[in-house]
Amino acid sequence: MASEITYAEVKFKNESNSSHSYSESPSAPRKKRIHHLSKPVSPSLPFTSLMVLLLLLAITFLVAFIIYFQKYSQLLEEKKSIKDITHNKLNCRKNVSSMEDKVWSCCPMDWKAFGSHCYFISTNRASWNESEANCSQMGAHLVVIHSQKQEDFITGILDKAAAYFIGLSDPGHRQWQWIDQMPYNESATFWHKGEPNNDNEKCVIINHPKNTGWGWNDIHCSDEQKSVCQMKKVYL
Ligand code: MMA
Ligand code: CA
Predict the structure, then answer these.
(1) 26: helix, coil or strand?
(2) Left if phi > 0, otherwise alpha if psi is -120 to 50, otherwise beta: which for 173?
(3) Which residues lie at CB < 5 A from ion ligand 2?
């Protein structure tokens, strides 16, 4: 009995939706019925919103998962490549005055030796981050400069017409930081006059503008420049 009534109500609703020609029918009970029918429709709005919200959440989680997975596999790749660093040819020098058992100090071919380190000029123009990644792939890092002698050696092997990223950057609040975490010593810095001059320029190049000597300038990290890599000499 109850199911029959329900069927009649549904049918009536369909008719009333499709046509307005039933004006002679008593309006009061019909209105009541329509009102009664529209009741189960209204909770579907929060339900739909909930479903949309859930869907959005699911999409957000999916996107976050994909990004996380990509970053993780990228990290694994980097770790793997660090493990597999090879330098096929070394240039070694015999140090007469050095430690007894480790007499030979070596740098990879095409790298230049100075003090206890090896230096490589990367003529590939890249952002600061990419430049550091490039050094890192060779078992090195962007150059860290601690003395006038070292600054002079490095500038001596550079092209005056170019600019080179060094391992100095500002993570924020003008807190200059060397890539190897060694302390930033203000007294051994070689900034050009008026530099650093821009809080938005958080990465440092060494260059030789016309009419000035070599020096440092803060620039945007996304700028693409050549760079200098540095690593410790290998002792044999
Ligand atoms: C100028 C000078 C620098 C700045 C660069 C950005 C050419 O030098 O204002 O301080 O870093 O422009 O390109
Ligand atoms: Ca600057």
Answers:
(1) coil
(2) left
(3) 197-198, 201, 217-218
